[in-house]
Specification:
Distance between the termini: 31 Å
Number of domains: 2
Oligomer: single chain
Structural class: alpha/beta
CATH architecture of the largest domain: 3-Layer(bba) Sandwich
Enzyme class: oxidoreductase
Helix content: 25-40%
Number of strands: 20
Pfam family, one: FMO-like
CATH class of the largest domain: Alpha Beta
Largest sheet: 8 strands, mixed
EC number: 1.14.13.-
Radius of gyration: 24 Å
Keywords: FAD, Flavoprotein, Monooxygenase, Oxidoreductase
Family: Belongs to the FAD-binding monooxygenase family.
Length: 504
């Protein structure tokens, strides 16, 4: 593709966010776009996470787009294969297949201020692509991360990461370690104890676990949803408001937090009879400070004869297994790392160069920030999905993502309709917004003292939104051009990063 024929939009990533953006672009009459996906298939995190028991802990009615409802969800909470099927069905239903460019790993994004174009560079020998707008929809859970544990390279047995599951490895008769007790681990452990000779679970911190009732959707309900879509919409709204009310107990430390904790403790007492094991599994932080775990299978699995919980900290990995700080070496055939992802709370997953040669990873070195999670001053016509401070602690990520997508597609439409070379958020507006966000975060449970992946090492919260989903969506309801600096071919901006005035 030559520079004389730039795309209207380049979308980076072919998961939920990229596909949702593409759908809304088409619905707004924008069809000159391409989705660049590093893999050979669509699906993002639901393509990659195929470990045993993989499922979403948000109800399926809510973990889907309102503009692409699925009346055929099989259960209240769907497994990864069914979610991937939903993603693939959207690609077909909305005619997106021809917009995909598979096997394209983006290695650099650079803005040409004079032309008002982004240059998208890929690895290998693929030609560069030029685009008027770029949507970075690669997602925060895209890059699997092994823990920084001493001796990890010395271990001679089999290693498996939850996001890169080895389906060819036979766990039958094997001695297996699971490192981690987060959202993936509590789904993996119940499945492994059915197969392995023994399973030892290495816990650093006990989490708050709430019961999950996963009912099968009957055929009558499915028929009703298909024939009368309004009923499915009402069901989605019911789940939304139910989860919205949970914010009062997990986003802030309130009397309702005690209710959540009471439910968690009751669930623990009901499923774990041994007092010492209950003590080991009791969190020492407020509910909501870390991600809540939704499972009714994890506690029973830990009490199987072939399963044991290890709470001594890991000192090092050895050639044969794991050595804990009290000097005991546990030997294993395989170690499963359920240790999450490399989430960019600082820096960026790919180099991004904006106006005047500014580099986003340098600006984010002490913590990521953006305006309404979507745009960053100095990087015109560049938009983020699931960007800084858009994480929900109580609701579906897709509710937040849908609001972002509508805001982004309005911005893209504005660039095209006004023939702009730049739509750049004002720095003063961005700074006020983020000062307010950080001030509000101070009173949330996430900033109450526990360590979590939400925070940087020095305690900066670049991840979560301090409020209700309704508040988040409301702020993105309208694209206010007063928040931006505009420029067209006829009206070029000055070359000062501190430029403030909007040009209409």
């Amino acid at each position: 593709m030559s520079k004389s024929a730039p795309l209207d939009v380049a979308i980076i990533g072919g998961g939920f966010a990229g596909i949702g953006t593409a759908i809304r672009l088409k619905q707004k009459g924008i069809t000159d776009f391409a989705i660049f996906e590093r893999d050979t298939r669509v699906g993002g995190t639901w393509r990659d996470n195929t470990y045993p028991g993989a499922a979403c802990d948000i109800p399926s009615r809510l973990y889907s787009y309102s503009f692409a409802p699925n009346p055929d969800w099989s259960h209240t909470y769907s497994g990864s294969a069914e979610i991937l099927g939903y993603v693939e069905s959207m690609v077909e239903e909305f005619g997106l297949r021809n917009h995909f460019r598979f096997g394209h790993t983006v290695t650099n994004l650079q803005f040409d201020e004079e032309a008002g174009l982004w240059t998208v560079t890929f690895d290998g020998r693929k030609p560069k692509v030029f685009a008027r707008s770029v949507v970075v929809a690669s997602g925060p859970l895209a890059n699997a991360s092994l823990p920084n544990i001493k001796g990890i390279d010395t271990y001679e047995g089999h290693k498996v990461h939850s996001a890169k599951w080895d389906h060819d490895y036979d766990f039958a008769g094997k001695k297996v370690a699971v490192v981690g007790t987060g959202a993936s681990a509590v789904q993996i452990v119940p499945e492994l104890v059915k197969q392995a000779e023994s399973v030892k679970v290495f816990q650093r911190t006990a989490g708050w676990v709430l019961p999950r009732v996963n009912r099968r959707t009957n055929s009558v309900s499915k028929m009703l949803y298909r024939q009368f879509p309004v009923t499915e919409s009402l069901a989605r709204q019911a789940w939304f408001w139910g989860h919205e009310s949970v914010a009062l107990g997990v986003v802030w430390n309130t009397p309702l937090t005690r209710v959540v904790e009471t439910v968690g403790k009751a669930h623990l007492r009901a499923q774990v009879k041994d007092p010492w094991l209950r003590r080991q599994l009791t969190p020492d932080f407020r509910a909501g400070c870390k991600r809540l775990l939704m499972t009714s299978d994890y506690y029973p699995a830990l009490q199987k004869d072939n399963c044991k919980l290890i709470t001594w900290p890991i000192a090092t990995l050895s050639p044969k297994g794991i050595r804990t700080v009290e000097g005991i070496e546990h030997q294993f055939d395989c170690i499963v790392f359920a240790t999450g992802f490399d989430v960019s709370k600082t820096g960026t997953p790919i180099p991004i160069v904006g106006r005047h040669g500014r580099v986003l990873s340098d600006e984010w070195s002490k913590g990521a920030y953006a305006y309404k999670s979507v745009a960053v001053s100095g990087y015109p016509n560049l938009y983020l999905t699931f960007g800084p401070n858009s994480g929900p602690g109580h609701s579906s990520a897709l509710v937040y993502m849908e609001a972002q997508i509508d805001y982004i597609t309005d911005a893209v439409r504005t660039v095209l309709d006004k023939n702009l070379t730049m739509l750049d958020v004002r720095r003063d507006v961005q700074d006020r917004y983020n000062a307010d966000i950080q001030q509000r975060l101070e009173s949330t449970t996430w900033n109450s003292g526990c360590q979590s992946w939400y925070l940087t090492e020095d305690g900066f919260n670049a991840t979560m939104f301090p409020g209700f989903a309704t508040q988040y969506a409301h702020q993105l309801r309208k694209l206010d051009l007063r928040d931006f600096v505009l420029a067209s071919d006829a009206t070029k901006l000055g070359n000062r990063p501190s430029e403030r005035a909007a040009v209409s």
